[in-house]
Write a structure and sequence with these properties.
Alkaline Phosphatase, subunit A; ten-stranded mixed sheet; 8 helices
Length: 332
Protein backbone atom coordinates (compact mmCIF):
# COMPACT_ATOMS: atom_id res chain seq x y z
CA UNK A 1 0.00 0.00 0.00
CA UNK A 2 1.50 3.27 -1.01
CA UNK A 3 1.31 6.29 1.24
CA UNK A 4 -1.70 8.58 0.72
CA UNK A 5 -1.03 11.32 -1.76
CA UNK A 6 -1.70 14.98 -1.17
CA UNK A 7 -4.54 16.37 -3.25
CA UNK A 8 -3.96 19.72 -4.95
CA UNK A 9 -6.78 21.78 -6.39
CA UNK A 10 -5.56 23.56 -9.54
CA UNK A 11 -6.17 27.27 -9.34
CA UNK A 12 -7.03 27.24 -5.65
CA UNK A 13 -10.05 25.88 -3.77
CA UNK A 14 -13.51 25.96 -5.24
CA UNK A 15 -16.62 24.77 -3.47
CA UNK A 16 -19.94 23.33 -4.48
CA UNK A 17 -22.17 25.79 -6.25
CA UNK A 18 -19.44 28.01 -7.65
CA UNK A 19 -19.18 28.15 -11.46
CA UNK A 20 -16.02 26.90 -13.08
CA UNK A 21 -14.29 30.09 -14.12
CA UNK A 22 -10.99 28.70 -15.42
CA UNK A 23 -10.08 26.04 -17.96
CA UNK A 24 -9.78 22.49 -16.69
CA UNK A 25 -6.45 22.09 -18.43
CA UNK A 26 -3.79 24.47 -19.70
CA UNK A 27 -4.70 26.76 -22.63
CA UNK A 28 -3.46 26.02 -26.07
CA UNK A 29 -4.99 22.58 -26.34
CA UNK A 30 -6.48 21.40 -29.56
CA UNK A 31 -9.17 18.98 -30.58
CA UNK A 32 -8.15 16.63 -33.32
CA UNK A 33 -10.42 14.04 -34.87
CA UNK A 34 -9.07 11.10 -36.76
CA UNK A 35 -11.35 11.18 -39.82
CA UNK A 36 -11.53 8.09 -41.96
CA UNK A 37 -10.79 8.71 -45.64
CA UNK A 38 -13.35 6.99 -47.85
CA UNK A 39 -10.76 4.74 -49.47
CA UNK A 40 -9.62 3.47 -46.06
CA UNK A 41 -13.02 3.15 -44.47
CA UNK A 42 -13.13 -0.60 -44.87
CA UNK A 43 -9.98 -0.91 -42.76
CA UNK A 44 -11.44 0.85 -39.75
CA UNK A 45 -13.68 -0.97 -37.30
CA UNK A 46 -14.33 1.84 -34.84
CA UNK A 47 -15.02 5.55 -34.79
CA UNK A 48 -11.91 6.98 -33.11
CA UNK A 49 -11.90 10.14 -31.09
CA UNK A 50 -8.43 11.48 -30.37
CA UNK A 51 -8.52 14.52 -28.16
CA UNK A 52 -5.79 16.44 -26.32
CA UNK A 53 -6.19 19.34 -23.93
CA UNK A 54 -9.86 19.78 -24.84
CA UNK A 55 -10.72 22.65 -22.50
CA UNK A 56 -9.91 25.29 -25.09
CA UNK A 57 -12.36 23.81 -27.58
CA UNK A 58 -16.05 24.59 -27.22
CA UNK A 59 -17.06 20.98 -27.88
CA UNK A 60 -15.18 19.87 -24.77
CA UNK A 61 -16.13 22.65 -22.39
CA UNK A 62 -18.00 21.86 -19.17
CA UNK A 63 -21.31 23.21 -20.47
CA UNK A 64 -21.07 20.90 -23.51
CA UNK A 65 -21.94 17.80 -21.45
CA UNK A 66 -25.52 16.66 -22.11
CA UNK A 67 -28.18 17.04 -19.45
CA UNK A 68 -28.44 13.31 -18.78
CA UNK A 69 -31.86 12.03 -17.80
CA UNK A 70 -30.21 9.51 -15.48
CA UNK A 71 -26.66 8.54 -14.56
CA UNK A 72 -25.54 5.12 -13.33
CA UNK A 73 -22.01 4.33 -12.16
CA UNK A 74 -20.86 0.73 -11.64
CA UNK A 75 -17.55 0.34 -9.80
CA UNK A 76 -15.57 -2.81 -10.55
CA UNK A 77 -12.37 -3.87 -8.82
CA UNK A 78 -8.64 -4.30 -9.20
CA UNK A 79 -7.82 -4.83 -12.88
CA UNK A 80 -5.37 -3.02 -15.11
CA UNK A 81 -6.56 -1.84 -18.51
CA UNK A 82 -4.64 -4.61 -20.24
CA UNK A 83 -6.30 -7.24 -18.02
CA UNK A 84 -9.72 -6.21 -19.38
CA UNK A 85 -9.46 -4.64 -22.84
CA UNK A 86 -8.80 -7.35 -25.39
CA UNK A 87 -8.89 -10.10 -22.76
CA UNK A 88 -10.58 -13.38 -23.74
CA UNK A 89 -11.73 -13.59 -20.13
CA UNK A 90 -13.94 -10.51 -20.58
CA UNK A 91 -15.95 -11.07 -23.80
CA UNK A 92 -19.03 -9.15 -22.68
CA UNK A 93 -17.05 -6.16 -21.45
CA UNK A 94 -15.22 -6.01 -24.76
CA UNK A 95 -18.54 -6.24 -26.59
CA UNK A 96 -19.66 -3.18 -24.64
CA UNK A 97 -16.41 -1.39 -25.55
CA UNK A 98 -17.05 -2.13 -29.22
CA UNK A 99 -20.71 -1.12 -29.18
CA UNK A 100 -20.29 2.00 -27.02
CA UNK A 101 -17.29 4.09 -25.93
CA UNK A 102 -13.98 3.47 -24.17
CA UNK A 103 -11.59 5.85 -22.43
CA UNK A 104 -8.15 4.53 -23.33
CA UNK A 105 -6.25 6.68 -20.81
CA UNK A 106 -8.28 6.57 -17.60
CA UNK A 107 -6.36 6.29 -14.31
CA UNK A 108 -7.04 5.67 -10.65
CA UNK A 109 -5.93 8.48 -8.36
CA UNK A 110 -3.83 6.24 -6.10
CA UNK A 111 -3.48 2.63 -5.02
CA UNK A 112 -5.82 1.12 -2.47
CA UNK A 113 -9.48 0.75 -3.39
CA UNK A 114 -11.16 2.99 -0.87
CA UNK A 115 -9.35 6.26 -1.69
CA UNK A 116 -10.54 5.94 -5.28
CA UNK A 117 -14.16 5.62 -4.23
CA UNK A 118 -13.78 8.61 -1.89
CA UNK A 119 -12.09 10.64 -4.65
CA UNK A 120 -14.98 10.03 -7.03
CA UNK A 121 -17.56 10.81 -4.34
CA UNK A 122 -16.01 14.00 -2.96
CA UNK A 123 -13.19 15.31 -5.13
CA UNK A 124 -10.39 14.42 -2.69
CA UNK A 125 -8.98 11.44 -0.79
CA UNK A 126 -8.61 13.12 2.64
CA UNK A 127 -5.77 10.75 3.57
CA UNK A 128 -8.10 7.75 3.45
CA UNK A 129 -6.36 4.41 2.98
CA UNK A 130 -7.66 1.10 1.73
CA UNK A 131 -8.25 -0.48 5.12
CA UNK A 132 -9.39 2.52 7.16
CA UNK A 133 -12.92 3.30 8.36
CA UNK A 134 -13.31 7.00 7.54
CA UNK A 135 -15.70 9.32 9.31
CA UNK A 136 -15.56 12.41 7.11
CA UNK A 137 -17.28 15.76 7.50
CA UNK A 138 -16.52 16.92 3.96
CA UNK A 139 -19.00 18.05 1.33
CA UNK A 140 -19.77 15.20 -1.04
CA UNK A 141 -21.75 14.22 -4.12
CA UNK A 142 -24.92 13.59 -2.10
CA UNK A 143 -24.81 17.19 -0.88
CA UNK A 144 -24.41 18.41 -4.45
CA UNK A 145 -27.19 16.24 -5.83
CA UNK A 146 -29.68 17.27 -3.19
CA UNK A 147 -28.76 20.95 -3.53
CA UNK A 148 -29.36 20.57 -7.27
CA UNK A 149 -32.74 18.88 -6.65
CA UNK A 150 -31.51 15.57 -8.01
CA UNK A 151 -32.47 12.26 -6.45
CA UNK A 152 -29.95 9.51 -5.67
CA UNK A 153 -29.55 5.89 -4.61
CA UNK A 154 -26.70 3.57 -3.81
CA UNK A 155 -27.38 -0.08 -4.60
CA UNK A 156 -24.82 -2.27 -2.87
CA UNK A 157 -24.96 -6.04 -3.30
CA UNK A 158 -25.41 -7.92 0.01
CA UNK A 159 -25.80 -4.67 1.97
CA UNK A 160 -28.26 -5.43 4.79
CA UNK A 161 -30.09 -2.10 4.49
CA UNK A 162 -31.59 -0.32 7.48
CA UNK A 163 -28.68 2.14 7.73
CA UNK A 164 -26.34 -0.71 8.67
CA UNK A 165 -22.92 0.67 9.56
CA UNK A 166 -20.83 -2.45 10.05
CA UNK A 167 -17.58 -3.19 8.26
CA UNK A 168 -18.85 -6.20 6.31
CA UNK A 169 -21.98 -8.28 5.77
CA UNK A 170 -22.66 -11.62 4.10
CA UNK A 171 -25.75 -13.10 2.46
CA UNK A 172 -29.09 -11.43 3.09
CA UNK A 173 -31.80 -10.73 0.50
CA UNK A 174 -29.30 -10.69 -2.37
CA UNK A 175 -28.17 -14.27 -1.73
CA UNK A 176 -24.59 -15.50 -1.34
CA UNK A 177 -21.84 -12.94 -1.33
CA UNK A 178 -20.03 -10.39 0.82
CA UNK A 179 -20.48 -6.62 1.02
CA UNK A 180 -17.78 -4.35 2.50
CA UNK A 181 -18.20 -0.81 3.79
CA UNK A 182 -15.00 0.44 2.15
CA UNK A 183 -16.60 0.06 -1.29
CA UNK A 184 -19.65 2.13 -0.33
CA UNK A 185 -18.32 5.70 -0.20
CA UNK A 186 -21.55 7.35 0.95
CA UNK A 187 -21.12 5.67 4.35
CA UNK A 188 -17.75 7.38 4.81
CA UNK A 189 -19.50 10.74 5.23
CA UNK A 190 -21.15 11.62 8.52
CA UNK A 191 -23.89 13.74 7.00
CA UNK A 192 -25.09 10.68 5.06
CA UNK A 193 -24.48 7.92 7.57
CA UNK A 194 -26.06 9.75 10.51
CA UNK A 195 -29.16 10.87 8.61
CA UNK A 196 -31.92 8.28 8.66
CA UNK A 197 -33.51 9.73 5.54
CA UNK A 198 -30.25 9.80 3.60
CA UNK A 199 -28.81 6.44 4.60
CA UNK A 200 -32.16 4.84 3.71
CA UNK A 201 -31.16 5.54 0.10
CA UNK A 202 -28.38 2.94 0.44
CA UNK A 203 -30.09 -0.31 -0.45
CA UNK A 204 -29.37 -3.92 -1.43
CA UNK A 205 -29.56 -5.15 -5.02
CA UNK A 206 -32.93 -6.72 -4.33
CA UNK A 207 -34.39 -3.21 -4.42
CA UNK A 208 -32.65 -2.13 -7.62
CA UNK A 209 -34.74 -0.08 -10.01
CA UNK A 210 -32.99 1.70 -12.91
CA UNK A 211 -35.49 4.55 -12.67
CA UNK A 212 -35.50 4.87 -8.88
CA UNK A 213 -33.35 8.03 -8.90
CA UNK A 214 -31.54 10.46 -11.16
CA UNK A 215 -28.15 9.19 -9.97
CA UNK A 216 -27.46 5.59 -8.97
CA UNK A 217 -24.15 4.18 -7.74
CA UNK A 218 -23.97 0.39 -8.11
CA UNK A 219 -21.57 -1.59 -5.91
CA UNK A 220 -21.24 -5.33 -6.65
CA UNK A 221 -20.11 -7.73 -3.94
CA UNK A 222 -16.54 -8.98 -3.61
CA UNK A 223 -16.99 -11.79 -6.12
CA UNK A 224 -19.04 -9.96 -8.74
CA UNK A 225 -16.79 -6.88 -8.68
CA UNK A 226 -13.71 -9.01 -9.34
CA UNK A 227 -12.09 -8.14 -6.00
CA UNK A 228 -12.17 -11.76 -4.83
CA UNK A 229 -13.60 -13.20 -8.03
CA UNK A 230 -12.09 -13.87 -11.41
CA UNK A 231 -12.27 -11.64 -14.46
CA UNK A 232 -14.72 -14.17 -15.95
CA UNK A 233 -16.97 -13.84 -12.89
CA UNK A 234 -16.91 -10.05 -13.14
CA UNK A 235 -17.71 -10.26 -16.84
CA UNK A 236 -20.62 -12.62 -16.16
CA UNK A 237 -21.98 -10.29 -13.52
CA UNK A 238 -21.99 -7.36 -15.92
CA UNK A 239 -23.64 -9.49 -18.60
CA UNK A 240 -26.47 -10.21 -16.14
CA UNK A 241 -26.75 -6.73 -14.71
CA UNK A 242 -26.11 -4.19 -17.46
CA UNK A 243 -29.22 -5.09 -19.53
CA UNK A 244 -31.35 -4.17 -16.52
CA UNK A 245 -30.20 -0.62 -17.24
CA UNK A 246 -29.86 -0.58 -21.03
CA UNK A 247 -33.27 -2.22 -21.53
CA UNK A 248 -34.95 0.51 -19.48
CA UNK A 249 -36.83 3.55 -20.72
CA UNK A 250 -34.70 5.62 -18.31
CA UNK A 251 -31.50 4.70 -20.20
CA UNK A 252 -33.05 5.17 -23.63
CA UNK A 253 -34.14 8.67 -22.60
CA UNK A 254 -30.59 10.09 -22.86
CA UNK A 255 -29.23 8.22 -19.87
CA UNK A 256 -25.54 7.45 -19.30
CA UNK A 257 -23.98 4.41 -17.67
CA UNK A 258 -20.31 4.56 -16.67
CA UNK A 259 -18.53 1.29 -15.81
CA UNK A 260 -15.29 2.05 -14.00
CA UNK A 261 -12.57 0.01 -12.32
CA UNK A 262 -11.36 1.49 -9.04
CA UNK A 263 -7.63 0.77 -9.50
CA UNK A 264 -5.22 -1.47 -11.37
CA UNK A 265 -2.50 -3.69 -10.00
CA UNK A 266 -1.17 -2.71 -6.60
CA UNK A 267 1.96 -1.37 -8.26
CA UNK A 268 2.23 0.31 -11.63
CA UNK A 269 0.69 3.21 -13.51
CA UNK A 270 -2.88 2.56 -12.28
CA UNK A 271 -4.16 2.55 -15.88
CA UNK A 272 -7.73 1.23 -15.72
CA UNK A 273 -10.76 0.65 -17.92
CA UNK A 274 -13.66 3.11 -18.19
CA UNK A 275 -16.68 2.48 -20.41
CA UNK A 276 -19.26 5.09 -21.41
CA UNK A 277 -22.54 3.38 -22.31
CA UNK A 278 -25.20 5.73 -23.58
CA UNK A 279 -27.51 6.22 -26.57
CA UNK A 280 -25.71 9.57 -26.90
CA UNK A 281 -22.29 8.10 -27.83
CA UNK A 282 -21.22 6.70 -31.22
CA UNK A 283 -20.45 3.00 -31.49
CA UNK A 284 -16.81 2.14 -31.02
CA UNK A 285 -15.77 5.61 -29.88
CA UNK A 286 -12.41 6.02 -28.20
CA UNK A 287 -10.98 8.97 -26.28
CA UNK A 288 -7.23 9.20 -25.66
CA UNK A 289 -7.61 12.12 -23.26
CA UNK A 290 -6.20 11.40 -19.80
CA UNK A 291 -9.06 11.05 -17.31
CA UNK A 292 -9.29 10.10 -13.62
CA UNK A 293 -12.07 9.51 -11.12
CA UNK A 294 -12.12 13.29 -10.66
CA UNK A 295 -13.04 13.56 -14.33
CA UNK A 296 -16.05 11.31 -13.85
CA UNK A 297 -17.22 13.39 -10.90
CA UNK A 298 -16.66 16.56 -12.94
CA UNK A 299 -18.70 15.14 -15.81
CA UNK A 300 -21.71 14.52 -13.59
CA UNK A 301 -21.31 17.93 -11.95
CA UNK A 302 -21.12 19.65 -15.32
CA UNK A 303 -24.08 17.79 -16.81
CA UNK A 304 -26.32 18.84 -13.95
CA UNK A 305 -24.71 22.20 -13.08
CA UNK A 306 -23.81 21.13 -9.56
CA UNK A 307 -20.68 23.24 -9.13
CA UNK A 308 -17.51 21.32 -8.29
CA UNK A 309 -15.68 19.75 -5.38
CA UNK A 310 -11.94 19.78 -4.73
CA UNK A 311 -9.93 18.22 -7.52
CA UNK A 312 -12.95 17.87 -9.78
CA UNK A 313 -12.72 21.66 -10.27
CA UNK A 314 -9.56 21.18 -12.33
CA UNK A 315 -10.40 17.83 -13.88
CA UNK A 316 -11.04 17.24 -17.57
CA UNK A 317 -14.72 16.65 -18.27
CA UNK A 318 -15.51 13.56 -20.38
CA UNK A 319 -17.46 15.63 -22.91
CA UNK A 320 -15.59 14.43 -26.01
CA UNK A 321 -17.73 11.30 -26.13
CA UNK A 322 -21.00 13.16 -26.59
CA UNK A 323 -20.48 15.32 -29.68
CA UNK A 324 -20.58 12.93 -32.59
CA UNK A 325 -23.21 11.39 -34.82
CA UNK A 326 -24.34 7.76 -35.15
CA UNK A 327 -25.61 7.12 -31.61
CA UNK A 328 -25.37 3.66 -30.09
CA UNK A 329 -28.09 1.06 -29.74
CA UNK A 330 -28.52 -1.43 -26.88
CA UNK A 331 -26.38 -4.59 -27.22
CA UNK A 332 -28.20 -7.57 -28.69
Amino acid sequence: MSAPQTDVVPGGPQVMGEPRTSPRVSPGGVLSLVLVVAGLATLVAFAWISVTNPATNASASSDAVPDFSHVWVIFMENRDYTQIVGSPDAPYINQLATRYALATRYYGVMHGSQPNYIAFFSGATYGVTGGSTPNLSATNLVDQLEAGRRTWRVFAENYPGGCYNGITATGGPDGPGTWVRRHTPALAFKDVRKSAARCANIQPFRQFDPAAADFELIVPNLIDSGHDGTTQQADSFLQRFVPRITDSAAWRDNGALFIIWDEGRETGANHITALVISPLVPSGARSSVRYTHYSLLATIESAWHLGCLGNSCGATVMSAFFHHNSPSAPPS
